[in-house]
Amino acid sequence: MFDELSKYKQGNFFFQATDSLVEVCNVEANYYGLYLVYALRKGRVELVYINKSGPPEKLSDLKVNSDIPDDLRENLLNGFQFGEIERKNSWPVQMMIEDIEALHVHWYVTYDHKNKDLPATMKSKILQIYQGIYGQLPRWNLT
């Protein structure tokens, strides 16, 4: 669905509510990027969340492979979602509430030595494509 993301360094992992997100997350530290979260529920797969890492919105603010305060891994594990609760704690609760069997997280490094695409720009593009297809944002982006 998102051919724009195929050029980036990428990976994915599965997360179940009984897992430790810190242990199953295979996202490398010190990179900026984007991640898409798919929910597996009752034999169906649904894209429920699209997010980016890092606060920089300008190229001049980005540093590659330095001490990044909100890199892709840090954002995925410790960013707040569903209130003031870190994802590593909020996702298992939300999964139980929604009867989600697993999350399949796909991550993409959009800014590194090879690519210089700002995560905020890429998130906006991907959300526009999604909204163009489905007429709305992914449901976890609405909360």
Protein model, in words:
By secondary structure, the chain is an alpha+beta fold. The protein has one domain. Helices cover 27% and strands 25% of the residues. The protein is built from four helices and four strands; from the N terminus they run βαββααβα. A four-stranded antiparallel β-sheet has the order 1-4-2-3. A hairpin with a 2-residue loop joins strand 2 and strand 3. The mean pLDDT is 89.
Main attributes of the structure:
143 residues; alpha+beta; 4-stranded antiparallel sheet; 25% strand
Could you outline the blueprint of secondary structure elements for this entry?
Layout: E1 9-15, H1 21-24, E2 32-41, E3 44-52, H2 72-78, H3 87-97, E4 102-111, H4 119-134
Antiparallel strand pairs: 1-4, 2-3, 2-4
Global morphology = globular
Spatial strand order of the main sheet = 1-4-2-3
Report the uncertain regions: none
Counting DSSP H or I runs of 4 or more residues, the number of helices is 4
Radius of gyration: 15 Å
Helix % is 25-40%
Coarse structural class: alpha+beta
- Strand fraction band? 25-35%
Please, what is the average pLDDT?
Answer: 89
Q: End-to-end span in angstroms?
A: 23 Å
In the residues, how many domains can be counted?
Answer: 1
Largest sheet: 4 strands, antiparallel
Q: Would you report the number of β strands?
A: 4
Q: What letter string, H or E per element, gives the SSE order? A: EHEEHHEH
